[in-house]
Design goal:
Distance between the termini: 40 Å
Number of strands: 0
Structural class: mainly alpha
Shape: elongated
Number of domains: 1
Radius of gyration: 19 Å
Largest sheet: none
């Protein structure tokens, strides 16, 4: 009987990836406290729309700690991108009072952070992949 071979450790999130996750978590904290909560007092549907982001918020903190795999990071950033796009379209239909415009800018910032994080993951994955023998 062959001894069990240990599985290779899955690659972790880079330092830049952790910084982007921390920036996203900080942006979400400020957005919730300064924009979503005051809007939620006027229109409770805003608070309901923030519920999917609560799970992502926890995942961003987990990514920022640096213990998550790149696969989890990829899933988190794809879901974050979808959540930011969905929120932008939702709040765009609410009208244009000043708090809603600021919330729209917050979601644009979140989109930018998400795209940067996905680009950084793609670059790291491409760099890690071995080069085929015919392409050297």
């Amino acid at each position: 009987m062959h001894p069990l071979l240990p599985l290779p450790a899955s690659p972790k999130v880079s330092r830049l990836g952790r910084a982007l996750a921390a920036a996203q978590a900080a942006k979400e904290t400020l957005s919730f406290l300064l924009l979503v909560l005051p809007l939620g007092l006027e229109a409770p549907v805003v608070l309901v729309s923030a519920l999917p982001g609560a799970g992502l918020y926890a995942l961003h903190f987990y990514l920022a700690r640096g213990r998550a795999s790149r696969v989890l990071a990829l899933a988190t950033w794809v879901l974050t991108l979808a959540d930011e796009l969905w929120a932008m379209f939702l709040y765009n239909n609410l009208g244009a009072p000043a708090p809603v415009r600021r919330l729209h800018l917050s979601h644009c910032l979140g989109l930018g952070i998400s795209v940067l994080a996905l680009a950084e993951l793609a670059r790291r994955w491409q760099r890690r992949r071995p080069v085929p023998a015919g392409r050297r």
